[in-house]
Design a protein that fits this description.
Helix content is 31%, strand content 24%. The chain is of the alpha/beta class and 636 residues long. The chain has an eight-stranded mixed beta sheet, sandwiched between helices. Helix 5 crosses helix 9. The radius of gyration is 24 Å and the shape is globular. 52% of the residues are buried. The structure holds 5'-O-[(S)-butoxy(hydroxy)phosphoryl]adenosine (WT7). The site of 5'-O-[(S)-butoxy(hydroxy)phosphoryl]adenosine has 22 residues, from helix 11, strand 20, strand 25 and strand 26. Keywords: Acetylation, ATP-binding, Ligase, Nucleotide-binding. InterPro entries: Ac_CoA_lig, ACAS_N, AMP-bd_C, AMP-bd_C_sf, AMP-binding_CS, AMP-dep_synth/lig_dom, ANL_N_sf. It is an enzyme of class 6 (ligase). Belongs to the ATP-dependent AMP-binding enzyme family.
Length: 636
């Protein structure tokens, strides 16, 4: 029996039981056999969820890039590590071998060093999906700098907030990016962001679109000049297992975005292990995850997990609709992709188009299909299974979070029988529990509750950057000695988990995690707005879309409502990003509130979702009369 590679269901159960009976020895064995350590640990795990403090492989030393790059050079130097597929289908795909990648990461690391970057410094990376993005991430890891990747679809103000929160002195960005038939001026966005981020002294600019940009003297430098001159050998900085590897921001239900901090040793072990098993990765596979490296999915399952296994990982610069809706399938055929991992929202969007876009390609190379980011509905699941997998490729519905670092609940393909919309079983080492309203664990099957995890796993985020109290309050205070996920879930008769969605004020739109509070803050900045409340409502393609209830100040009354709607959405786009724009905006006289002044989102959610039959008891509200008028004027 191999703990590292599960091959059938009985083996899964054996491994799972062992992992729960003795998690320390389970993870120790995997860490020992499959990774390169400069020094072994003194202690596998120490933890206390009440502080909270979690340490894996304490005392161990390593560099994650030696595991992702150097150690493959002996046997896989000429194997493709990153297969870059450009936005423009006529531009040649680039095969970056392990040898090339090692060289380019080393050069980039030397560039960073030449700019004064040291171990522990935070480096902001704001790049499109081009090889330099993965290379920059790994270059930081090479020298022990902490990368903070910000998705290049975020606005200037969202970027600036993230830069300032973790005090980055340097940013790696690009002149622009190609997205379908559009060219976006990324450098302009960065320039605007840096007006509010005076701490950034250096910006390294990657040339991609060759758009004209303004280079600020003394701050902005073209990367290629420095890169060409840099040495191509860079000794890896030796890191402690618990040294931070990266920060990645995720929305909270209130307040500013949370900079989740992931550390080195445990994150490496867990992402590599889950990559191997969830995708049943084998040596000659061509693995493709369509996410952006700006999200955790890209960190764990485009960069670190695949490279730690010596895999070939596809990086796609473009969008699924360009030059037409067959692009994904064309790429699968062209590169003979074996594992394909995407989001339900992409599947729903493609399922709306003509079947011919799928059927004209040969997809017989596919062995495993994956989804992530939000619950997948049955219809989308069947479309994916029938037309992409031809009923021959198991679908892994993988549930996890930015905070968990790696996949937590998922089928093991070819082992776990799948059921549409079920993430099925916990991976080895993961101990889920469901909790009731009285914070008691619900035992048995065919039950529903709030999803928590009882025991630490190696890739759990260790803190929120600069705010450990918030980390404790958000994840460890709802239930004693448990990690609270923020999701609800059902456990069926055989013990399979089905995630039912968020139980807090986070809304998942097209697989993007959006907190209501920051959007409301942006709206409230509009001079005509008095107050606002955002809720999600079901949407065919996006899963959820945003519905805003907005009350106006006197100055706003009588103004053209469509103009106001545009201005408000514009404001949201500049403060957060276009993904957070509202689909529907209803102007209301007031918002339903409790006597303590809390907005009753539950009622607003029901109205937006056309579920007005049973609004519950509204008599205890401060202003029950507004509910009726909101209901009568609802945009449904
Ligand atoms: C939230 C985390 C993990 C990478 C992408 C999202 C939802 C995620 C599933 C799934 C149902 C899912 C949860 C979770 N979610 N995967 N397979 N089924 N819901 O990371 O932005 O941190 O969002 O996404 O609600 O809490 P994230």
């Amino acid at each position: 029996m191999s703990n590292y590679h599960i091959k059938h269901l009985e083996e899964y159960w054996q491994v799972y039981r062992k992992s729960v009976r003795n998690p320390e020895s389970f993870w120790e064995e995997i860490a020992e056999e499959h990774f390169l350590w400069r020094k072994k640990w003194d202690n596998v795990l120490s933890w206390d969820f009440s502080k909270p403090e979690i340490k894996w492989f304490e005392g161990a030393q390593l560099n994650i890039t030696e595991n992702c790059l150097d150690r493959h050079l002996a046997s896989r130097a000429d194997k493709t590590a990153i297969l870059f597929e450009p936005n423009n289908p006529d531009e040649k795909a680039e095969h970056i071998t392990y040898r090339d990648l090692h060289r380019r990461v080393s050069k980039m690391a030397n560039v960073l060093k030449s700019q004064g970057v040291k171990k522990g410094d935070r480096v902001c990376i704001y790049l499109p999906m081009i090889p330099e993005l993965a290379i920059s991430v790994l270059a930081c890891a090479r020298i022990g700098a902490v990368h903070s990747v910000v998705f290049a679809g975020f606005s200037a103000s969202a970027l600036s907030t993230r830069i300032n929160d973790c005090d980055c002195k340097i940013i790696i960005c690009a002149d622009g990016s190609f997205r379908g038939n559009k060219t976006l001026d990324l450098k302009d966005i960065v320039d605007k962001a840096l007006e509010n981020s005076p701490g950034v002294k250096t910006s390294l600019v990657v040339r991609r679109t060759n758009t004209t940009v303004v280079m600020k003297e003394g701050r902005d430098v073209w990367l290629d000049d420095l890169f060409d001159k840099a040495e191509d050998v860079c000794k890896a900085t030796v890191m402690d297992a618990e040294d931070p590897l990266f920060i990645l921001y995720t929305s909270g239900s209130t307040g500013k975005p949370k900079g989740m901090v992931h550390t080195t040793g445990g994150y490496m072990v867990y992402t590599a292990y889950t990559f191997k098993n969830v995708f049943q990765y084998r040596e000659d596979d061509i693995y493709w995850c369509t996410a952006d490296i700006g999200w955790i999915t890209g960190h764990s399952y485009i960069v670190y997990g695949p490279l730690a296994n010596g895999a070939t990982t596809v990086m796609f610069e473009g969008v699924p609709s360009y030059p037409d809706y067959g692009r994904f399938w064309g790429i699968v055929e062209k590169h003979k992709v074996t594992q394909f991992y995407t989001a339900p929202t992409a599947i729903r969007a493609l399922a709306k188009e003509n079947l011919n876009f799928v059927e004209k390609y040969n997809l017989s190379s596919l062995k495993v299909l994956g989804t992530v980011g939000e619950p997948i509905n049955e219809e989308a699941w069947h479309w994916y299974n029938d037309h992409v997998g031809k009923k021959n490729s198991p679908i892994v519905d993988t549930w996890w979070q930015t905070e968990t670092g790696g996949i937590m609940i998922s089928p093991i393909p070819y082992s776990t029988p799948t059921i549409p919309t079920f993430a099925t079983l916990p991976l080895p080492g993961i101990q889920p529990a469901l909790m009731d309203e009285n914070a008691k664990e619900i035992q048995g099957n065919q039950v529903e509750g709030r999803l928590t995890i009882k025991f630490p796993w190696p890739s759990i985020a260790r803190t929120i950057y600069g705010n450990h109290d918030r980390y404790r309050d958000t994840y460890f205070s709802a239930y004693k000695d448990m990690y609270f996920t923020g999701d609800g879930a059902r456990r069926d008769a055989v013990g399979y988990y089905r995630i039912t969605g968020r139980v807090d004020d986070v809304i998942i739109v097209s697989g993007h995690n959006l907190g209501t509070a920051p959007i409301e803050d942006a709206i409230n900045e509009h001079p005509a707005v008095a107050e606002s409340a955002i809720v999600g409502f079901p949407h065919d393609i996006k899963g959820n879309a945003l519905y805003g209830y907005i009350t106006l100040k006197e100055t706003g009354e009588g103004r053209d409502q469509d103009n106001l709607r545009n201005e408000i959405n514009q404001l949201i786009a500049t403060r957060i990003g276009p993904i957070a724009k509202l689909d529907k905006i209803q102007f209301t006289e007031g918002l339903p509130k409790t006597r303590s002044g809390k907005i009753m989102r539950r009622i607003l959610r029901k109205i937006a979702g056309k579920d007005t039959e049973n609004l519950g008891d509204i008599s205890t509200l401060l202003n029950p009369e507004v509910v009726k008028s909101i209901k009568n004027n609802a945009l449904v």
